Amino acid sequence: MSAEPRINDRIRVPEVRLVGPSGEQVGIVPLAKALELAQEYDLDLVEVAANARPPVCKLMDYGKFKYESAMKAREARKNQAHTVIKEMKLRPKIDPHDYDTKKGHVVRFLKQGDKVKITIMFRGREQSRPELGFRLLQRLAEDVQDLGFIESNPKQDGRNMIMVLGPHKKKTEAMAEAREAQAARKAEAKANPGRSQNAHEADDEDETVEAPAEATAEA
After folding, report:
1. Based on C-alpha coordinates, what's the Rg of the chain?
2. Cβ-contact 7, 47 below 8 angstroms
3. pTM of the model
4. 85-167, which class in CATH?
5. Where does the record place Basic and acidic residues bias (predicted)?
6. Do domains 8-62 and 85-167 have the same CATH topology?
7. How many CB atoms lie within 10 A of CB 120?
8. Can you give the residue ranges of every domain in the chain?
9. What does the pLDDT look like over 47-82, one tens digit per residue?
10. What does the alpha-carbon distance between residue 95 and residue 168 come to, in Å, rounded to a whole number?
11. Per CATH, which fold does 8-62 belong to?
12. Where are the beta strands (DSSP E) in the chain?
């Protein structure tokens, strides 16, 4: 069954409850009269409530209505926030440099409004020391507490220990801030036309790094 409403000559009922172009109630009129009014106004007769008795029809520019509806739907999809879970893998005896690198990724993901699944991987005898992984997860949670919180407490899953961090900032807020930052960079570039091409290329590279589709890293 088509989702498109019936319009004009496709409407097959003796009479309709008519709504005018500005939303005013015209009342119940014969279909022929409603079609005549549509021609006078150079508009379409559109059935907006087919199950009513009699059906409700409105005088409107159907082509314009469809276009505006499509644009609204497109804008809604553009602003829709999809929940994304990034993943970061660490070893229980990770060295300080690698820890700082991994923590940097977690910070970036949380700033983007994404959740982060932290996985501690145990190998060999490390499996008998789960407290090492627990302490590492607690340390990481404390280091990023300004940006995120523990959404799922550390738990053992086979040879791994898993914890999920949730962002304090909503995804929609992060998206809005990212758009504002991008607009600010464009305004700055326009105000400083002498800026080097290399600087522009560096900005492009930064933007690419800032929004990876997936992030699964292993220490």
Report:
1. 29
2. yes
3. 0.48
4. alpha beta
5. 173-189
6. no
7. 28
8. 8-62, 85-167
9. 999 999 999 999 999 999 999 989 988 887 776 666
10. 28
11. Ubiquitin-like (UB roll) (3.10.20)
12. 15-19, 25-30, 44-49, 56-60, 85-90, 115-121, 148-157, 160-167, 216-217
